[in-house]
Amino acid sequence: MNVVLRLRRRKKLNRSFSMDFILFLILSGAGAFMAIPFVFMISTALKPLDELFLFPPTFFVRSPTLDNFYDLSLIFSNSWVPLSRYVFNTIFVAVTGTAGHVVLASMAAYPLAKLRLPGNKLLFTVVVLSLMFAPQITEIPNYLTITWVGLLDSYGALIFPAFATSLGLFLMKQFMEGIPDAVIEAAKIDGASEYRIFWTIIMPMVRPAWLTLIIFSFKGLWGTGSGSQGAAFVYSEQLKTMDYAFSQILSGGFMRSGPLAAAALIMMLVPVTIFLFTQKSVIQTMSSSGLKE
């Protein structure tokens, strides 16, 4: 009898087919609206030059062409620094900076989340407050620090500032707090050290969090180099990244609008592809990082 009553209650809580269909339509409409910028960027990259300057502008391309990508390759074929060099610099900075940021943020988050040390709350408060600072506020302190340690005009000028980004520490700390203390205590009873607990227990359990952090960090470093920090920290053309190289296309005037649209699409495809393969972990992290057991 009790089982029948429970089943009836569950059936009452379930949504009807019509409600599910309405929610599906709403979410589909929201998803289509969010995809508009991405579709427009693809359409713009495929437009010939005459369509790029139509007024009023058209959303979809009428006569798609790959001439913009061909012109982009032609521009860099005449450059004294090959495109492959810019590609290597971008990948090296993004991968190295992301790996270092994930490791250091996780190692710093573990004692803040699981070890009862004096000053933990104060340190975490400082981290939260640092999230409120605009990147422009830290440009001068970063420049002075990099100059003092002798990393100016080197890969380290772009990589090491990414290690200290406070967003990763905040995200990892919040997610690690959801891990039961009983798991750590059981490992200590078995004789595991803090180092072993961190690498063999904590890090596998927070895998969705550091996968999410990889996306955020890689996206930020992938587009670095053209901003004021990138231009101020790196002078040598051999150390510039793709974002900086593509931004120089603007100096060619409006006739290079097509190659610029193709370059913007190329720069966007890599982070979007990474997100598509890891979106499940991102959703899991965002839905559980604020929960406590």
Automatic annotation (TrEMBL):
Recorded topology in the membrane: Multi-pass membrane protein
Highest rank taxon of the organism: Bacteria
Keywords for this protein: Cell membrane, Membrane, Transmembrane, Transmembrane helix, Transport
Spans traversing the lipid bilayer: 21-46, 86-110, 122-138, 158-176, 260-278
SUPFAM superfamilies: MetI-like (SSF161098)
Domain ABC transmembrane type-1 residue range list: 87-278
Cell compartments where the protein resides: Cell membrane
PANTHER family linked to this entry: ABC TRANSPORTER PERMEASE PROTEIN MG189-RELATED-RELATED, BINDING-PROTEIN-DEPENDENT TRANSPORT SYSTEMS INNER MEMBRANE COMPONENT
Family assignment from sequence similarity: Belongs to the binding-protein-dependent transport system permease family.
The protein's name in its UniProt record: Carbohydrate ABC transporter permease
Organism: Paenibacillus chungangensis
